[in-house]
Specification:
Number of helices: 13
Radius of gyration: 20 Å
Keywords: Hydrolase, Membrane, Transmembrane, Transmembrane helix
Subcellular location: Membrane
Structural class: mainly alpha
Number of strands: 0
Protein name: Murein hydrolase effector protein LrgB
Largest sheet: none
Oligomer: single chain
Helix content: over 70%
Pfam families: LrgB
Strand content: under 5%
GO molecular function: hydrolase activity
Shape: globular
Length: about 240
């Protein structure tokens, strides 16, 4: 009887919604009490929430599909939250108007370097064309990345995992990397976080300031567009070089 009741609770959509939000809020509260910037960065609510939830699913032997039945109601807010970044951009559009040559050239150059590095690593580690197609869109938002991976013949599920991993790592260490290289301009910081760690990097940028968040949101859009435009060239290169 108790076992059946416990299984019913674990299958509850409400349970996993409450746990997801509760764990995130709890870790965020813990992070707010940490003063040291390095320790504070690694007590990242997004990263630790993912780890704790995965551990719970494994320990309790709960299938991902069961979690997703409730967790999807949290995920549906990602798209409107991303669109809402346009509000910050509208309020800080003067920065884009002033620095658009540097912003555009920086993002285009970054995407080109990223693409070249993917091919270099493919050559070093002997990746096949499918793996390169999987890795290529890892630094853009999931919705766009999935479409590119499908068109190039990559592994969609692995691309999604890489997109999440890239975003989490970027949001955790991005600020420290910028500080280490003495990059303190808010426009440059926002663009760097947005183009390298997409929405998760943007969430970090928003914490750093309104200008950071606006420029990061803008760079997500431009990075996605540039990556999509380059994708038709990546396909033939895969066939030629690999």
């Amino acid at each position: 009887m108790l076992t059946n009741t416990f299984n019913v609770i674990l299958d509850s959509q409400t349970l996993w919604i409450v746990l997801t939000l509760g764990i995130f809020v709890g870790i965020a509260a813990l992070q707010s009490k940490i003063k040291h910037p390095t320790f504070r960065a690694f007590v990242n609510p997004l990263l630790l929430s993912i780890i704790v939830l995965i551990a719970l699913l494994l320990v309790l032997n709960v299938p991902y599909e069961t979690y997703q039945a409730g967790g999807q109601f949290v995920g549906i807010w990602v798209t409107p939250a991303t669109v809402a970044l346009a509000i910050k951009l509208e309020k800080n559009f003067e920065y884009f108007a002033k620095y658009y040559p540097a912003i555009l050239s920086g993002i285009i150059g970054g995407v080109l370097v990223h693409t070249i590095l993917v091919f270099i690593f493919a050559w070093i580690f002997d990746f096949d064309a499918q793996m390169v197609a999987t890795l290529y869109p890892k630094s853009i938002t999931t919705a766009i990345a999935v479409g590119i991976t499908e068109s190039l013949g990559g592994i969609v599920s692995l691309t999604v995992a890489l997109v999440v991993f890239t975003g989490v790592i970027g949001s955790v260490i991005g600020e420290q990397v910028l500080r280490a290289f003495k990059i303190d301009d808010p426009v440059a910081q926002g663009v760097a976080l947005g183009m390298s760690a997409h929405a998760m990097g943007t969430s970090k940028a928003i914490q750093m300031g309104d200008v950071h968040g606006a420029m990061s949101g803008l760079s997500i859009i431009i990075t996605g567009i540039v990556t999509v435009l380059l994708a038709p060239l990546v396909g033939p290169l895969l066939q030629t070089l690999l």
